[in-house]
Structures are given as C-alpha cells and as structure tokens.
Amino acid sequence: MTVDEGNPAAAGWSEPRATAVLVLADGTVLEGFGLGAVGQAPGEVCFNTAMTGYQEILTDPSYAGQIITFTFPHIGNVGVNEEDTETVNAAASSGVRGVVLHAAVTEPSNWRAARHFDTWLKARGIVGICGIDTRALTALIRDKGMPNAIIAHDPAGAFDVARLQREAAALPDMAGLDLVPLVASTQRYDWEETPWQWPRGYGRRDGTAHRVVAVDYGVKRNILRLLANAGCEVQVVPSTATAQQILALNPDGVFLSNGPGDPAATGQYAVPVIRELLDKKVPTFGICLGHQMLALAIGGQTLKMKQGHHGANHPVQDKTTGKVEIVSMNHGFAVDPASLPENAAETHVSLFDGSNCGIALTDRPAFSVQHHPEASPGPQDSHYLFTRFVEMMEANKAGKTA
Questions:
Q1: How far apart, in whole angstroms, are the C-alpha atoms of residue 388 and residue 284?
Q2: Residue 391 contacts by C-beta under 8 Å, 6 or more apart in sequence?
Q3: Are 67 and 149 in contact (CB under 8 A)?
Q4: pLDDT (tens digit, 9 = 90+) per residue, 219-242?
Q5: Which residues in the chain land under pLDDT 50?
Q6: Which residues does the annotation mark as catalytic?
Q7: Cβ distance 355 to 327 under 8 Å?
Q8: In angstroms, rounded to a whole number, what is the distance separating the alpha carbons of residues 20 and 201?
Q9: For residue 3, what pLDDT is reported?
Q10: Among 107, 125, 122, 248, which residue's Cα sits nearest to residue 182?
Q11: pTM score, two decimals?
C-alpha cells in the first residue's frame, strides 16, 4: 500500500461538512446534517420512544417549546399527509421547536403520503438534524434530565458555536413557563368531526345526547373526535374562558384538555375557574395538563420530572379495575400523589416509575388521567375513559332529575 492509498485526504476524499448542530446548555455540541427549516430554534430536549405516528407527535400542541429526539431510527420514511395533523389549526406553525433523528429521511413509501417529510418540516418551520447517535443522547437525558438546547441548520455549515453555547446556557427552565397561549385557540368554536374509519375517512357526529364544553389548553383533534363519537355536542372555549362563560353554555360536562408548559404557571388563571366548576358539581374530565390542573384545583401540587414520559408504549394500571393498559404519554410534569387531599383517590399509576397517572374525586363528579387516551398516536386501550365520562354525565343528569 502506498502512502496515498492509506490517506483518504491525499486520495481526494473529504469528510462531509456538518450542516446542523445541536448545542446543549452544558456546552456539548452534536454535529449532523440539516433538514427542515433553515435557522435556529431554542427548546428543551426530550426523547420519544414511539415507532410510528411522528406526524401526530410533531403536531401535538403539548410539545410546545421542546426539541424532540426520536429513539426509533427511521423517522419520516412514510411521508406526511393531510389527515394526521393534531393541531386544530392546521395552518398554524407547530409548537415543536426542532426534531433530532438518527437516519436520513428517505422518499415517502406509503400510499397515504401527500408530501415529503423534509418539505413538510420546512413548511411548518421546524428545524431538524439527522445523523445523530440518538441512543447516546437518550442515555444522556435519562441520566441528567432534559437539557435546554439550541438546534441550528445552515446548508453552508457556518456556525458560531461559542455564541450558540452562550445562548443555550442562558435559556430559561421549563418550570414556571406558561406556554398555553402559544398553541391554544382564542375564540369559541363547535366540533363535529368523528374518528377516521376505513375506507370513508373522518365522519360527522350523528345526533347528540350530551353537551360538553372543552377548555382548550392545546387540545388535540382526536380527543375532540372521540368526544363527538361518544354522542357529545362539543363546544370548545379558550383557556381564558371564565366559569360564568362556560356555565352560560349550559354544559352537561366540562373537559379539560392537554397542553404544554408548567401547570402551576397556567394554573394562575385556570385553577380558579376549575374550582368554581367543581363547586357547581359539573361533571369534569381532564387529560394531561387538564389532569394536572384538576389536581392543583383541589389543593394538590405538581413536580418537574427528570426525563418525563414521551412515547406510545407506557404501561399504566387502572387501579379501579386492576387492568393494565398500554398508553400514549407526553408530559414533563407530574402530580405529586402525596400532596393530594383525602377526597382524591388515585385511579391510575405508571408501572414504569410509580408516578401518578389518574385521580377521581370522591365528593364531586370529576376525574382525570395523565396519559393521552385518544391514542393519536398509540394504542386504543384507554378509549373506555370517554365512555366513563359519558356515564358520569348520565348519572349526574339522573340525580338532578330524580
């Protein structure tokens, strides 16, 4: 072997230049190749263990302010379509700040694909990076918690790393941030669409038996679809709606939606409203942020989690039945069960770490769960909770008319 044969540079080879970087708050710099929007974005880095449903995940308003690392290596390979978006306003930019992938994105390979994943990321303003050892990044988050970071994409590969390190180090912690205004609706609207079914696609509700007012903290489309499918006339109101405005709609039940950020921060204006609804004994059902808000309204507390729960394969036990269900999770804060008052019974618990995943009040018609039972994406084990809500409203009606 000659000297040149053993020297790739001398033989005319060159290493590809990094066109994207992920700069963590501790100064760590991960280099890769850019996709999606050009520019930079700040966020808290979390990891998601789902193998499918990346479009639903990246349009879930609960991820506002975050950079998502997918542990599954092949993301984007089935493209995107016009039906799997979870934000109610499909024209709005995503709350997600960035996406971190292992493998490069391939051409779409699914019959439902309408656009290439990279084109879709650009259109939604999401900065992406691939070529990252996502296993190592996930292990870092597992051991040290979810770090703040700057994700940057420049096709020319020109990065001021020192500046990015300073900016990443100066980012505020997620604790104390109210991110609901970034993703929630600002006006009231009605919802009639029901879940997707082959081969007709999405349907429309056919008659209603109950009127539900859904408080939008960043609600997902499929949650509203399942409420409509359960025979509910659904009216969605902004997160800032007062108890008087909600009660004026004469609801049979109130739904508290999922959403992003620190529940204690959002609770500054949401908790007094929920307390008044509970005092009126209006049947109430909360999911995710709505679960945390219900806990705060009865005097409980929430805690920032080290790595959070993000994925579609989390085992949760329903303590009221003893059954174990596999659920979809997306939260970085959790209810502290030790802080709950005596009138709150713990109904669900995570079998991964024992954290609280559900409560039910013993003196008022109200319950909530931490996970996302609408299964978008994820398994459908928890769909029964929507039936449980309907049964609660029916029992409340029967009690009022007896």
A1: 11
A2: none
A3: yes
A4: 999 999 999 999 999 999 999 999
A5: 1-3, 402
A6: 288, 372, 374
A7: no
A8: 38
A9: 44
A10: 125
A11: 0.94
